[in-house]
Amino acid sequence: MSLDTQLEAATSEYQRLQKELSDAIEARQRLDSQFQENEVVQKEFKLLKDDANIFKLIGPVLVKQDKSEATTNVNKRLDYIRSEIKRVETQLADLSEKSEKKKFEVCR
Amino acid sequence: MGKLRPKKRPFQFTIPSTPSSLARKEDTMTTSVAPKQQTIELTDLDLTQLSEVKKQLEEELSHLTSSFGQLKQVQTRFQDCIASVETIKGGKSGELVDTDKVIVDVGTGYYIEKGLDDALKFYAEKVEFVKNNSETLQQTITSKQNNLKSKK
């Protein structure tokens, strides 16, 4: 009986870990697509002349922005996303290790 | 052990994600863990696990297929953009005053003013980009489909 309860606890713990893991994977994918989008914009900025007109969509309004300002903005975003990806990456490694351990607990 | 607790154990561990670590652990544990967890031999899996594998593959496939559809849609959208710019270029633009330049949405909330030819080039590149991606995706889908078929 106690074996059963133990097993059940381990199983639910394992399921929780799996859920967290899939959440982290989702977050990782989202970050990846954001990163790519920003990268494309950055590339586009590089091709532009310095006096090109750049607008930023703020709410319903297009606001004109300096190229330098826009570029630093995008660069900053890329840096941020990069650090976020690193964070989620370690989280992922951590979680998969934990869930692997749980798996053995359940199997045992 | 299958007889001891046949129903209780959920078979979510279809294929071990890291077989190497599993194998290592098993060397020291002489009992319980069934060898079928170790290898990915399909014939060794039981029915529940097989259907899990199948389900997983099907999910992947449907995800990929929907991504493919999205890519196709995006491609058409960009092609529409090209058509629009070309209409302006052709001078059939009714009430528009400034027809030399257009504002192009480059993503993440940024818009860039571009000459007509630049805009056309921009969209043509986008279409090409999306096309390449969907071709790669198409290949992935085909190979997954083959996987799935061989499992039946």
UniProtKB/TrEMBL annotation, chain A:
<dbReference type="GO" id="GO:0051087">
    <property type="term" value="F:protein-folding chaperone binding"/>
</dbReference>
<dbReference type="GO" id="GO:0006457">
    <property type="term" value="P:protein folding"/>
</dbReference>
<keyword id="KW-0175">Coiled coil</keyword>
<dbReference type="GO" id="GO:0005737">
    <property type="term" value="C:cytoplasm"/>
</dbReference>
<dbReference type="GO" id="GO:0016272">
    <property type="term" value="C:prefoldin complex"/>
</dbReference>
<dbReference type="GO" id="GO:0051082">
    <property type="term" value="F:unfolded protein binding"/>
</dbReference>
<dbReference type="InterPro" id="IPR002777">
    <property type="entry name" value="PFD_beta-like"/>
</dbReference>
<dbReference type="InterPro" id="IPR009053">
    <property type="entry name" value="Prefoldin"/>
</dbReference>
<comment type="similarity">
    <text>Belongs to the prefoldin subunit beta family.</text>
</comment>
<feature type="coiled-coil region">
    <location>
        <begin position="7"/>
        <end position="34"/>
    </location>
</feature>
<protein>
    <submittedName>
        <fullName>16103_t:CDS:1</fullName>
    </submittedName>
</protein>
<dbReference type="GO" id="GO:0051131">
    <property type="term" value="P:chaperone-mediated protein complex assembly"/>
</dbReference>
<keyword id="KW-0143">Chaperone</keyword>
<dbReference type="Pfam" id="PF01920">
    <property type="entry name" value="Prefoldin_2"/>
</dbReference>
<feature type="coiled-coil region">
    <location>
        <begin position="78"/>
        <end position="105"/>
    </location>
</feature>
UniProtKB/TrEMBL annotation, chain B:
<comment type="similarity">
    <text>Belongs to the prefoldin subunit alpha family.</text>
</comment>
<dbReference type="InterPro" id="IPR011599">
    <property type="entry name" value="PFD_alpha_archaea"/>
</dbReference>
<dbReference type="GO" id="GO:0006457">
    <property type="term" value="P:protein folding"/>
</dbReference>
<dbReference type="Pfam" id="PF02996">
    <property type="entry name" value="Prefoldin"/>
</dbReference>
<protein>
    <submittedName>
        <fullName>4219_t:CDS:1</fullName>
    </submittedName>
</protein>
<keyword id="KW-0175">Coiled coil</keyword>
<dbReference type="InterPro" id="IPR004127">
    <property type="entry name" value="Prefoldin_subunit_alpha"/>
</dbReference>
<dbReference type="GO" id="GO:0005737">
    <property type="term" value="C:cytoplasm"/>
</dbReference>
<feature type="compositionally biased region" description="Basic residues">
    <location>
        <begin position="1"/>
        <end position="10"/>
    </location>
</feature>
<dbReference type="GO" id="GO:0051082">
    <property type="term" value="F:unfolded protein binding"/>
</dbReference>
<feature type="coiled-coil region">
    <location>
        <begin position="40"/>
        <end position="74"/>
    </location>
</feature>
<dbReference type="GO" id="GO:1990115">
    <property type="term" value="P:RNA polymerase III assembly"/>
</dbReference>
<dbReference type="InterPro" id="IPR009053">
    <property type="entry name" value="Prefoldin"/>
</dbReference>
<dbReference type="GO" id="GO:1990114">
    <property type="term" value="P:RNA polymerase II core complex assembly"/>
</dbReference>
<dbReference type="GO" id="GO:0016272">
    <property type="term" value="C:prefoldin complex"/>
</dbReference>
<feature type="region of interest" description="Disordered">
    <location>
        <begin position="1"/>
        <end position="35"/>
    </location>
</feature>
<dbReference type="GO" id="GO:1990113">
    <property type="term" value="P:RNA polymerase I assembly"/>
</dbReference>
